[in-house]
Amino acid sequence: MTFLEKHILRQQQTKTQLCVGIDPDITKIPEYYHSLSNPIASFGKDVVEATSHIATSYKLNFAFYEQYGKLGYEALEKTIASIPKDIITIADAKRGDIGNTSKAYAEAVFTQLNFDAITVSPYMGQDSLEPFLAYESKGVFVLALTSNAGSFDFQRKIVDGKKLYETVIERCMEYNQKGTLGFVVGATHPAELAFIRASVPTVPFLIPGIGAQGGDAKETMDANNGGPAFFNVSRAILYPTMAYPSYKDAVRMKAEEYASLLPTI
Ligand code: OMP
């Protein structure tokens, strides 16, 4: 089964398009985790337990694990192991290097860690992406138009008469021989999201930026116009501010709130 087939099946169960982002930050998790042997692993397990009834996918951002060294790597493995097998897992690692090195990155993420999909940077070109695209069933999300302010620095520059991100999309579509390629498009630019969606109506998008970065769920869904999508929400679910009987309850409520804002169509 390809990652997209798995995602469609999962969406039929949950009736939402919510991708829960797990970006563990020790300074933001409740105090009581701090005394546990691996606070990040325990936090991840609780987040998965609180949200797995509603999450269509999980995106684990590697930076938030790698910053804790050995404990972080252990937490990454334990968190992946705690995710039910019918839910898509996305390694947010933003890889991409010379082909020989990308091959090793792909082996690590797809074979060793067994993620369903990965985020990659297109900057080093075709040979840097091919080792990821060689996997029949794994998804490869290429950064196209990112959600941050820095997206104005390069991605919109006019090169050969068009914006650089348009060229990235056009060229990457030529590499999409197995239908496993998708794009990362930020929720913070709904008009451009709509424009990009119109150019590639059936390609899966990973769409971060809803919640903490200001992207609006409804506006983003409208801009996506029903295309296959993984709408990611990380901090707005992981670090709820409201008072509930327990932290896990608060995370569950927030996830359910976003899930209902991001229904399947
Ligand atoms: P929140 O802003 O807390 O919801 O987190 C967004 C997540 O998506 C983080 O893990 C970011 O690293 C990631 N992200 C973006 O925010 N913007 C992008 O353009 C691309 C990504 C990503 O590739 O996931």
Task: Describe the fold and architecture.
There is one protein chain. The protein is 43% helix and 17% strand. The protein has 11 helices and 10 strands. The chain has 265 residues and is of the alpha/beta class. It has one domain: Aldolase class I (TIM Barrel, Alpha-Beta Barrel). The structure holds orotidine-5'-monophosphate (OMP).
Helix content range? 40-55%
Distance between the termini: 23 Å
Q: Any guess at the CATH architecture?
A: Alpha-Beta Barrel
Number of strands: 10
Name of the level-1 CATH class: Alpha Beta
For the sheet with most strands, the description reads: 8 strands, parallel, barrel
Strand content is 15-25%
Bound molecules: orotidine-5'-monophosphate
**Individual helix count:** 11
Molecular shape:
globular
Q: What ranges have pLDDT less than 50 throughout 5 or more consecutive residues? A: none
Per-chain topology:
Blueprint lengths: L2 H12 L3 E5 L16 H13 L5 E5 H5 L2 H14 L5 E8 L3 H14 L4 E4 L5 H8 L5 E7 L12 E2 L2 E2 H12 L5 E5 L4 H10 L5 E3 L9 H8 L4 E5 L1 H4 L8 H15 L4
Parallel strand pairs: 1-2, 1-10, 2-3, 3-4, 4-5, 5-8, 8-9, 9-10
Antiparallel strand pairs: 6-7
Helix pairs in contact: 2-4, 2-11, 5-6, 8-9
The protein binds orotidine-5'-monophosphate (OMP).
Orotidine-5'-monophosphate (OMP) binds next to strand 10 and helix 10.
